[in-house]
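Dear support,

I submitted the protein below through the web form. The confirmation email said the job was done, but the results page showed an empty box. After a refresh the structure appeared. I'm attaching both so you can tell me whether what I see now is the final result or a partial one.
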Amino acid sequence: MTTPHPEKRHLASRTAGEVAAAAPLVLLVPVGSCEQHGPHLPLDTDTRVAVAVAERVAARRAEVVVAPAVAYGSSGEHQGFAGTLSIGTAALRTVLIELGRSAFPAAGAGAFASLVFVNGHGGNHEALGEAVDVLVGEGRPVTAWWPSIPGGDAHAGRTETSLLLAIAGDVVGPDRPVGETRPLGELLGSLRSGGVAAVAPNGVLGDATGASPEEGEALLAALVDDLAARLPVS
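What the results page shows now:
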């Protein structure tokens, strides 16, 4: 199967007729956030990572298309920092459920063979899990995927800084800050009561020292391989 023009990897760039003619498609829906990522990374870091992984998977397979990203997530733990915008778990859950229902209407065959929510933000896990449970319970072919990086730090540290250097290095600031580096399990109580600001005034849970675009490319390739391996075989 031929690889589509880069623009055609995006659902929103196709006409309704083109979508119908190409059906059934595998639909990837990136889910991110708008939240602080330390003094050096942009607020849309999680969204950029989710979109980049989805786009690279779509570049491999002609039947895969990428939907416009859900760019707001459940980010209450970052509310103490300027610029963070959060819709919370309940609202995100509802949005994802309604998107899934829209992709697979009850009457008649739709354009999509399956839908995968490609998650870029850990705070979205609860909403994603609940939404997928509802949609699967209704008989809709929906799953969720999120990055798993052994040894990676939690937030705005070396892992995410390297990924952003690979994806869009021009948006990464010059700082490579060190934040709170204790294991996340030790911080959960303080995070729940006071958010990230209570444990890391600079917003970083990790250590960005040593981040590089080369490491980011290797991490990104591993994430793309992982997601691609979980999609239905064409």
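Response: this is the final, complete result; the empty box was a page-load delay. The CA atoms of residues 41 and 172 lie 5 Å apart.
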